[in-house]
Amino acid sequence: MTELLKDKAGLVTAGGSGIGRASAVALAKAGAKVMVSDVSEEGGRETVKLIKEGGGEAQFFKCDVSDEDQVKALVDETVSAFGKLDFAHNNAGINAGQVKIGELDSNDWDKTIKINLYGIFYCVKHQINAMLKTGGGAIVNTASGAGLEGSPNMSPYTASKHGVVGLTKSVALEYGKQNIRINAIAPGATITPAIERWAEDNPEQYNGVLESLPAGEMSTPEDQGNVVMFLCSDLARQINGVTVPIDGGYTAGKLQQ
Ligand code: NAD
């Protein structure tokens, strides 16, 4: 445990697995009270258990981020449980419709945009309104390397994550003077259940990704969670409106093969 987020309280969406679980654990280890939220009750409650076993403080609240009423209820419940909202990690995202756009089912487009982009909009809107009442705060959105450059066969995902990067920049300009910072992370390939499922289905692409990484390895959820924790802390007080790639150098340029 450190003291970096002592007396701070906030929430994590999609905290029941992968990157969200790792950030919830990192935030709690830094001393924060964490409302762990996920559409999966099982995953979310497991994260709360892990945090409590490590001596931290956490509660679970079920929330599907594509439903604005549920998102508002999550923010209200966090403020009611902890008295304020100092930080939020908006992390829920899916990658439906992994085909060329000419073959894309519109339902996969809608589903992806609804969770990845509307979800971030609902979260940020209600979190900002809560933070304005209690003196400010820090928001971190999970974008992706696919929010910084194009990626074939995942146009809904790429479009949604570019949207997250743009929304993050605009909102940073709107509320800086009210002591609210908002940033995003752009994880590169990170070993989470989602990537493990994808690697199983696409072994050749998986090996190709590994070869293209300057670090020669994928990042871990903990690599991502630690940066989220830093961005939520006052150490990052001059960082606002940026998207931080956490990808071992992948977005720095192309490796000479
Ligand atoms: P994961 O599959 O490990 O976990 C995803 C979690 O999201 C699950 O617990 C699931 O129940 C929850 N979830 C799904 N739909 C939801 C909804 N509508 N509302 C609330 N929760 C919901 O995934 P992960 O790899 O940790 O991904 C987390 C975030 O990181 C996503 O936004 C993803 O796009 C992004 N990301 C991941 C990678 C990677 O390589 N893993 C790379 C770039 C970006």
Automatic annotation (TrEMBL):
Gene3D superfamilies: NAD(P)-binding Rossmann-like Domain
Origin superkingdom: Bacteria
GO molecular function, one term: diacetyl reductase ((S)-acetoin forming) (NAD+) activity
Catalytic activity: (S)-acetoin + NAD(+) = diacetyl + NADH + H(+)
Listed InterPro entries: NAD(P)-bd_dom_sf (IPR036291), Sc_DH/Rdtase_CS (IPR020904), SDR_fam (IPR002347)
Family assignment from sequence similarity: Belongs to the short-chain dehydrogenases/reductases (SDR) family.
PANTHER family with a match to the protein in the record: DEHYDROGENASES, SHORT CHAIN, ESTRADIOL 17-BETA-DEHYDROGENASE 8-RELATED
Function per UniProt: Catalyzes the irreversible reduction of 2,3-butanediol to (S)-acetoin in the presence of NADH.
Protein name per the record: Diacetyl reductase [(S)-acetoin forming]
Taxonomic classification: Bacteria, Bacillati, Bacillota, Bacilli, Bacillales
